[in-house]
Amino acid sequence: MEWIGMIGIGLVGMVIAVLLRQYKPEYAVFVSLAVGVLIIGMLCSQLLPVFNEMKEMLSQANLSLEYIGILIKSLGVCYLTQLASDACRDAGETAISSKLELAGKITVLSLGLPLFGKLLDIVKQLIAI
Predict the structure, then answer these.
(1) pLDDT band at 1; cut points 50, 70, 90
(2) I need a surface site. Which of 6, 14, 61, 80 has the fewest CB within 10 A?
(3) What's phi and psi for 63, nearest 5 deg?
(4) How far apart are CA 102 and CA 82, in angstroms?
């Protein structure tokens, strides 16, 4: 039921941001950013069981914990990039927003490079058979 609290915080933050945007637009961006960070902070407590379950699945499948590390880092990059990009877009800086999204995509790609290398090794083994 924690999601109801997040929805409430989001709606209250939205109302405050809309009201501030009429009189003090520079403060509305900070309210939006603060609400976003607060909601993501609340989500972190809900993600721990998910990560523990993924860790258990990987250990049952005899896979390395390196994979879950890459997955968690990639998810973190995606969420933080989206938060920063949305904050820039709310402030009217769409050019910076799109550059942040590009940086996030490239970062996720670079995090996944070890997985691509292992996948290539598996393909090479299959072709050699």
Answers:
(1) low
(2) 61
(3) -105, 155
(4) 11
31: tokens are: 């309210």
Tokens at 123, concatenated: 């393909």
Burial zone of 10 (CB within 10 Å; 0-12 exposed, 13-18 middle, 19+ buried):
middle
DSSP per-residue codes, the chain: -HHHHHHHHHHHHHHHHHHHHHH-HHHHHHHHHHHHHHHHHHHHHHHHHHHHHHHHHHHHTT--HHHHHHHHHHHHHHHHHHHHHHHHHHTT-HHHHHHHHHHHHHHHHHHHHHHHHHHHHHHHHHHH-
Looking at the predicted structure, is the pLDDT value of residue 116 above 90?
no
**Amino acid at the residue 47:** L
Task: State pLDDT tens for residues 39-89.
Answer: 888 888 787 888 788 778 777 877 677 777 888 889 889 988 998 898 888
Token duo for residue 71:
């997955």
Of residues 66 and 101, more confidence is placed in 101
